[in-house]
Amino acid sequence: MQPLLDAILHGGPMARRRAMAKAITLLESTRADHRAQADALLTALLPHTGKAFRLGISGVPGVGKSTFIEALGLYLIAQGHRVAVLAIDPSSSVSGGSILGDKTRMEKLSVHEMAYIRPSPSSGTLGGVAEKTREAMLVCEAAGYDVVIVETVGVGQSETAVAGMTDMFVLLQLPNAGDDLQAIKKGVMELADLVVINKADLDPKAATRAQAQITSSLRLLGLHGNPEHAHHDDTLWHPKVIQISALRGQGIDTFWAEVSEFRRLQTANGRLAARRQQQALAWMWERIDAGLKQAFRQHPQVRRLLPAMEADVAQGRVPASTAARILLAAQFGKAPETIE
Ligand SMILES: Nc1nc2c(ncn2[C@@H]2O[C@H](COP(=O)(O)OP(=O)(O)OP(=O)(O)O)[C@@H](O)[C@H]2O)c(=O)[nH]1
Ligand SMILES: [Mg+2]
């Protein structure tokens, strides 16, 4: 374990990247002995994490995420940053993982020694995939990557998962997005700290229209959703909309200026730290919930009772709350009436 740790923390570019890949593979393993090693490794790495800026990026297939991340990554490397790119793609066990094919779209970034690109873990549930990605993020940070990008295509609840593990959540949109604001997935707009209209080169007029429309809908969301936004307050960040062309590399500097301003404000007003604390606690509870549920389903007594109980509840023979109490009591070996 020590050599792996040393290579991640102090290795040269090649050794470091190899050690990172090895560590992340260990984290993704489902073997119990691997999990014990992975937990020890993460705990040892933890003091070296937290210094990176964590950037979440989402947008529908084809909006230009890979093209954008390639342009942004190279721009940041030119400024002396080290860039890691991770992905959450809950469907990747089926599709084989789009970011792999993406390496061809991130042609220069993927081979750059100051970059590290890792496809989405391909295991089952979104919660499980998100957990692995959070842990991989810590490995990248300990290895000295100071910008960590987490991308998702936004299947199911994956935007929420990405927003829940990053400092800033960016939503990429097409120039025609403003024409049908209803089509933008409900709830996702609320998560966005910054909306980026890509492919502005294709239709500059539409992009400008979309920028105005989304700006006003964000303002409305702010007024209704967050009372603080009702008053203009210079110490708070107000979600913005910008236009870029990832393909032509236009607007990348503007984008990074907005990110830097966001980071400055959120650091000064304490929200960056507060967001991370909330995220860490929410992650712990999310994993406890998932772990308890799994243990519950595997309990022999529960397994014996469950099929009949489910049928009884579905058919209206037993109240759902009574069934839950009976099953919980079975797991804890108690009488049902002692369960709250
Ligand atoms: N004209 C124009 N085309 C772009 C721009 N950005 C990306 N594209 C093109 O749009 C297509 C899709 O881009 P990708 O970067 O692969 O999009 P993606 O969001 O990563 O797509 P998935 O990985 O499938 O989710 C490619 O053909 C790009 O060349 C842009 O700013 N302008
Ligand atoms: Mg892509």
Automatic annotation (TrEMBL):
Q: What is this protein called?
A: LAO/AO transport system kinase
What NCBIfam families would the database entry show?
A: lao, PRK09435.1
| Highest taxon of the lineage | Bacteria
**Signal peptide location:** none
Keywords in alphabetical order: Kinase, Transferase
Instruction: Report domain AAA+ ATPase positions.
Output: 51-218
Kindly list the GO CC terms recorded for this protein. cytoplasm
Kindly give the Gene3D superfamilies that the UniProt entry links to this protein. 1.10.287.130, 1.20.5.170, P-loop containing nucleotide triphosphate hydrolases (3.40.50.300)
Its lineage reads: Bacteria, Pseudomonadati, Pseudomonadota, Betaproteobacteria, Burkholderiales
Q: Which SUPFAM superfamilies match?
A: P-loop containing nucleoside triphosphate hydrolases
Under the heading Pfam families, the entry gives:
MeaB
Give a GO molecular function annotation for the protein: GTP binding
Instruction: Kindly indicate whether the keyword Membrane belongs to this entry.
Output: no
| Keyword Transferase recorded | yes
Family per similarity comment? Belongs to the SIMIBI class G3E GTPase family. ArgK/MeaB subfamily.
